[in-house]
């Protein structure tokens, strides 16, 4: 009988080891074999053996030998530590001889997310000059500056923002991927950096994972076909002119390995697959990337069979470095070393001993430097391993020509800001948008629309550059930007409007669909709000459960006799059966980036009435039939998606679709990630509790409710809908509390370290009187409270606003963030009225006002 493992292997290895066989066929790797491990052990001899992309450069190795022999131990340790621009200054680099700097997703010059390109270049110059300053007697070893240029140099105002990887996977175009890499490298170099943390070659197997959109596909073959192309675009091609020259950057292939297969789709979780599935599915993108000369590999936060990847010697040293002949350097992810058992963010020599060559310690770089230095002095960290790590870092710097490149502003592209969003770069991005669109429904051939007619464009995604670009855009979560931050792009509305007007038609933008002139057709653009990493993890695949505003908009327009085209923006497939049924046409547009005009290119007919561009995109991820169909389950015999991998209509196909089932398979309340209360409903497992001034406490399952002594009351009030908010009224008879209690304690350590906030949508309904505090609890005698009166006094009265309280504030005040069971407490002594519309976790940009607190 065929086992589930056999079925999975057969699916990804249709002929002799599948992707492995394909690599063998083109001469990139050798070796075959099957092994099933269940204890974290590794059999390197059964992994692909990759041919060296670059021959050993004896002259370069001799230069490295001489430099290594002259370096002090302190200088060596400095080369294996990387700090963030928010925590490490150029003077720190000069003093400690640090080898690398990064700008994290929320790290910007002057703490301005929209800092001008010139500020980035000046900062890069400052770090470089510090690293080359020998006035204190140190060696002149150029620093290397890394950044998450993951869909273009998307950290910089004005840069070209390409579709996220999930959309590029739908395009099925490796040559286009290579061009995107080339443009990304050029725009990155123009702003002073020479290293991007890309490409992501995860093979996501559970669409609940918040990083699904960073994967090209759920199928390893497609990921493998893209990984080499992107690396070649970023770095150039080994052996050919231009390789790692001033117009290219080094790439980091990530996140090694298995991050797309964690149990339950949990970010930074545990991948429980066998060694064979890890090799043939999750590692499929690495051999092709290494075969074309990838210079860096970033390890994952996640674990494989319980062992953190940052400390997995078998996978890092035995498989990656020895078996695959990888001779670049391996870097950890953001403070991932601190998650290794026995370690902390302040240090983990064990990861270097396991094969890590550079520790990304953004805000704890100094402590990591000191602990690594101490471990090297004591012998805990073998000198041979430290020397090998330094050699690998220096090798990449020599290959990148950094020793004779001069400071970033003096390099070939440094300061050529006209390259940001250059017309030819935008043309490539627009092509990528066109090719990534997937048509799932086109009833009675509604599309393409006649641009000479009257077209309504509606939906909250129609004219929102941040929403169409998604996470990792100008900041980590991709929130809080404005239209002015994208001077070289087009929203989807702007692209449609321009095309319709050029054809002689009329276009109207009405986000809520309340038009002034009845249209011949409506295009409704809607979808997920931006997110990144674990902030995007969701419990089910139901699109915005409990919030049917987008569906209601489509239905209202349809009821008015208007044909509707739904354009869906998302970082993953979601359960959309109701919306697909309601619309006449349905287009999966993913996260298209800055070139919204690419959507108009395909949706609108040309001057001759025929399609100017047909739909080319094919699903790179299968689409769920129900909201509880969490994973794509590659190879699972009973997996029956709504739309299979590879599905996608063209204009020549019959676009009619039988009505889809509207049975989600789960409760809507299950699908609200990081939300404790919203739209009048508490998330399952969360209870509101009232404790009066006398100390007696009681749950409030229904409204209105009051404590036994009447010192605190709660009733329903309106915000966005009828009684979707709760007004809390304190009488002033004594200290009384309203709290949200969780049935099961929540581990919020990951969120706390990631600068997540507790976000309240609230309104101050009465003048402040007396003390008021906000807090969280972590069991009997465990918790933290913070004074809230001054913060509330600074809010406009009788006006809804969003207030963020960093989780780090609660941690600093003594809360154990690993076991939070009281999600929120509000305690007041004096008379006060305060309304709450939503309580949730959020990121920078989700709150209009952020409480300040003293952090330890």
Walkthrough of the structure:
The N and C termini lie far apart (59 Å). Helix 3 (58-70) crosses helix 15. The strands form six sheets. Strands 20, 21, 24, 25, 26, 28, 31, 33 and 34 form a nine-stranded mixed beta sheet that branches. Strand 20 (675-678) and strand 21 (681-682) form a beta hairpin. The chain has 856 residues and is an alpha/beta fold. It contains 24 helices and 34 strands.
Shape: globular
* Alpha-carbon distance between the two ends: 59 Å
Mean pLDDT comes to 92
Show unreliable segments. 1-38
Determine the fraction of residues in helical runs and give it as a percent range.
25-40%
Residues in β-strands, percent: 15-25%
- Helix/strand/pairing category: alpha/beta
**Radius of gyration, whole Å:** 27 Å
Task: Report on the biggest sheet.
Answer: 9 strands, mixed
Number of helices: 24
Total beta strand runs: 34
What keyword list fits this structure?
eight-stranded parallel beta sheet, 24 helices, globular, 856 residues, alpha/beta, disordered N terminus
What's the short version?
With 856 residues, this protein is α/β, with parallel strands linked by helices. It contains 24 helices and 34 strands.
Would you spell out the secondary-structure blueprint of this structure?
Layout: H1 4-12, H2 19-25, E1 29-30, E2 49-50, H3 58-70, H4 73-79, E3 81-84, H5 90-96, E4 100-103, H6 117-132, E5 144-147, H7 165-171, H8 174-190, E6 195-196, H9 220-235, E7 250-256, E8 270-271, H10 275-282, H11 286-291, E9 296-299, E10 303-304, E11 307-308, H12 313-323, E12 329-331, H13 349-354, E13 359-360, H14 365-378, H15 383-399, H16 423-436, E14 438-442, E15 454-458, H17 465-469, H18 492-503, E16 506-509, E17 521-527, H19 549-559, E18 564-569, H20 577-582, E19 585-590, H21 597-603, E20 675-678, E21 681-682, E22 686-691, E23 697-699, E24 705-706, E25 712-717, E26 725-730, E27 736-746, H22 749-753, E28 757-764, E29 772-777, E30 783-787, H23 789-793, E31 801-806, H24 807-812, E32 820-828, E33 832-842, E34 849-850
Parallel strand pairs: 3-4, 3-13, 4-5, 5-6, 6-7, 7-9, 8-10, 9-12, 15-16, 15-17, 17-18, 18-19, 31-34
Antiparallel strand pairs: 1-2, 10-11, 14-19, 20-21, 20-33, 22-23, 22-27, 24-25, 25-26, 26-33, 27-32, 28-31, 28-33, 29-30, 29-32
């Amino acid at each position: 009988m065929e086992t589930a493992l056999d079925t999975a292997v057969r699916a990804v290895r249709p002929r002799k080891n599948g992707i492995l066989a394909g690599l063998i066929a083109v001469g990139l790797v050798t070796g075959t074999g099957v092994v099933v491990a269940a204890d974290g052990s590794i059999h390197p001899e059964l992994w692909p053996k990759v041919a060296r992309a670059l021959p050993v450069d004896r002259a370069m190795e001799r230069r490295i030998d001489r430099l290594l022999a002259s370096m002090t131990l302190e200088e060596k340790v400095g080369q294996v530590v990387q700090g963030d621009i928010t925590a490490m200054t150029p003077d720190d680099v000069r003093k400690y001889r640090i080898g690398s700097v990064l700008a994290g997703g929320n790290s910007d010059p002057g703490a301005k997310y929209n800092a001008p390109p010139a500020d980035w270049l000046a900062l890069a110059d400052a770090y470089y000059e510090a690293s080359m300053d020998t006035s204190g007697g140190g060696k002149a070893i150029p620093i290397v500056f890394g950044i998450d240029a993951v869909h273009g140099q998307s950290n910089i105002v004005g840069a070209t923002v390409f579709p996220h990887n999930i959309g590029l996977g739908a395009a099925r175009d490796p040559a286009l991927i290579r061009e995107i890499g080339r443009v990304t490298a050029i725009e990155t170099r123009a702003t002073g950096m020479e290293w991007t943390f890309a490409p992501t070659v995860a093979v996501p197997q559970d669409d609940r994972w918040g990083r699904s959109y960073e994967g090209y596909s759920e199928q390893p073959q497609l990921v493998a076909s893209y990984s080499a192309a992107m690396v070649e675009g970023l770095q150039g091609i080994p052996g050919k002119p231009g390789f790692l020259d001033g117009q290219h950057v080094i790439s980091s292939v990530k996140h090694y390995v298995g991050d797309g297969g964690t149990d339950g789709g949990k970010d930074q979780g545990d991948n429980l697959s066998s060694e064979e599935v890890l090799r043939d599915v999750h590692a499929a993108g690495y051999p092709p990337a290494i075969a074309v000369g990838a210079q860096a590999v970033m390890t994952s936060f996640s674990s494989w069979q319980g062992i953190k990847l940052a400390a997995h010697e078998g996978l890092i040293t035995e498989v990656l470095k020895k078996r695959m002949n990888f001779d670049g350097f391996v870097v950890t992810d953001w403070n991932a070393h601190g998650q290794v058992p026995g370690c902390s963010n302040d240090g983990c020599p064990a990861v270097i001993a396991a094969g890590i060559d550079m520790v990304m310690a953004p805000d704890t770089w100094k402590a990591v430097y000191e602990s690594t230095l101490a471990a090297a002095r004591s012998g805990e960290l073998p000198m041979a391993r430290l020397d090998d790590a330094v050699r690998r870092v220096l090798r990449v710097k020599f290959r990148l020509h950094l020793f004779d490149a001069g400071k970033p502003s003096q390099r070939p592209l440094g300061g050529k800001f006209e390259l940001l969003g250059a017309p030819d770069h935008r043309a490539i991005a627009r092509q990528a948008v066109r090719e990534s669109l997937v048509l799932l429904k086109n009833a009675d051939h509604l599309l393409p629309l006649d641009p000479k007619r009257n077209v309504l464009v509606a939906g909250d995604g129609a004219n929102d550059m941040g929403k169409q670009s998604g996470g990792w855009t100008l900041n980590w979560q991709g929130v809080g930007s404005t239209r002015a931050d994208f001077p070289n792009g087009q929203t989807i509305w702007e692209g449609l409007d321009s095309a319709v007007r050029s054809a002689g038609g009329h276009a109207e933008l009405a986000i809520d669909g309340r038009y002034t002139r009845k249209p011949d057709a409506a295009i409704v653009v809607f979808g997920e709000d931006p997110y990144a990493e674990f902030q995007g993890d969701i419990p089910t695949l139901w699109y915005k459960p409990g919030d049917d505003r987008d569906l209601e908009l489509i239905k209202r327009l349809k009821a008015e006799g208007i044909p509707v085209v739904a354009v869906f923006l998302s970082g993953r497939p979601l359960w959309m059966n109701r919306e697909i049924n309601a619309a006449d046409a349905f287009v999966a547009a993913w996260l298209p980036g800055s070139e919204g005009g690419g959507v108009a290119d395909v949706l609108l007919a040309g001057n001759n009435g025929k399609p100017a561009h047909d739909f080319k995109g094919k699903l790179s991820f299968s689409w769920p039939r129900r909201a509880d169909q969490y994973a794509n389950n590659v190879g699972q015999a009973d997996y029956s998606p709504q739309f299979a991998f590879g599905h996608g209509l063209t204009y020549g196909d019959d676009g009619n679709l039988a009505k889809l089932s509207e049975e989600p398979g789960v409760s809507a309340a299950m699908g609200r990630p990081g939300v404790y209360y919203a739209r009048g409903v508490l998330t399952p497992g969360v209870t509101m509790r009232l404790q009066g001034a006398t100390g007696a406490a009681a749950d409030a399952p229904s409204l209105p409710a009051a404590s036994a002594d009447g010192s605190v009351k709660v009733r329903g009030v309106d915000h966005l809908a009828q009684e979707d908010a709760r007004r809390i009224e304190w009488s002033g008879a004594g200290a009384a509390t309203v709290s949200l209690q969780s049935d099961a304690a929540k581990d919020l350590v990951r969120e706390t370290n990631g600068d997540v906030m507790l976000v309240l949508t609230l309104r101050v309904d009465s003048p402040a009187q007396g003390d008021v505090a906000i807090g969280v609890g972590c069991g009997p005698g465990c918790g933290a409270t913070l004074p809230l009166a001054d913060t509330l006094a600074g809010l406009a009265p009788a006006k809804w606003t969003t207030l963020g309280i960093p989780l780090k504030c609660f941690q600093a005040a003594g809360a154990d963030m690993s076991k939070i069971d009281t999600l929120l407490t509000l305690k007041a002594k004096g008379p006060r009225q305060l309304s709450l519309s939503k309580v949730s976790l959020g990121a920078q940009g989700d709150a209009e006002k952020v409480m300040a607190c003293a952090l330890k």
